[in-house]
């Protein structure tokens, strides 16, 4: 356990941009090399292009696991928190996974639709959504605890269900199957306003995110292309938390606050584990932080860090 050189090197090479704010949500752009290439396809695109197939692990299914097949020759990145819809119930991915072409894996997931256990489709489809940020932070913490203590990438499923139920109550959404997707659908008009308010800057690879003037997390990819394709999903996930407590006036944290969070992540200790796919899983272990990263080929592929819940 120690400082992670891939994280430190990536953060050192970034410039903190001017904040963009809508209502109570603020994003500080993280600007890097505009020429960096991803070397992978994001999960949503891979599903839409039919490069991958995701199913229940068996006819009966198992809640915390899905079968993943990359039938293409392209590498695919599953991002922590990505939602998959269909089959016996909707799930979210427990941590970021890089899957090489031609590989099959059993991937760890959490259920975000407690009231359904019946087939709606044979395969899962892309939802273009992610687990909302507050629940994602708690999930990240429980996955880290599971990996350290049992060598498994399991989340606290009861906590995930409770987080979804609490979110539905806060957003005044009723769902027959207690599905996170229904919360997003019912809140779509508000969330669309947030999405329209944020834009990607040249060379932007990530963002430090704040709600109500308080920095609560960051998202970072290895290249601008991946982040630009992920931004809408990121904004919706954080906005779903922001709309719970609307502000009369925007509260914007200072650049000093954003830099302090970057410094905390830069200096944090972490533990490494062989990844399910390519590379290594890195789980953050610093005081006050939750989250994880994926490193492969000597580079940071993806990092998600949160203020510990």
- The helix/strand series, from N terminus to C terminus, equals EHEEEEHEEEEEEEEHHHHEEHHEEEE
The amount of helix comes to 25-40%
Number of strands: 19
CA-based gyration radius: 18 Å
How much strand content do the residues show?
A: 25-35%
The parts where pLDDT drops under 50 for at least 5 residues are none
Average pLDDT for all residues: 95
N-to-C CA distance: 22 Å
Biggest sheet layout: 10 strands, antiparallel
Global geometry: globular
Distinct helical segment count: 8
Alpha-beta classification? alpha+beta
Structural write-up:
There is one protein chain. The protein has helices at residues 5-12, 43-48, 133-150, 157-170, 180-186, 188-197, 224-242, 255-267; strands at 2-3, 15-16, 20-22, 25-31, 41-42, 52-56, 65-70, 76-78, 82-86, 91-93, 97-99, 104-111, 124-130, 204-211, 214-221, 269-274, 280-284, 289-296, 299-307. It has 309 residues and is an alpha+beta fold. The chain has a domain at 2-39 and 131-307. Strands 1, 2, 3, 4, 14, 15, 16, 17, 18 and 19 form a 10-stranded antiparallel beta sheet that branches. A 6-stranded antiparallel beta sheet has the order 6-7-12-10-9-13. The protein has a 3-stranded mixed beta sheet with strand order 5-8-11. Strand 17 and strand 18 (289-296) form a beta hairpin. The longest helix is centred in the last third of the chain and has 19 residues, at 224-242.
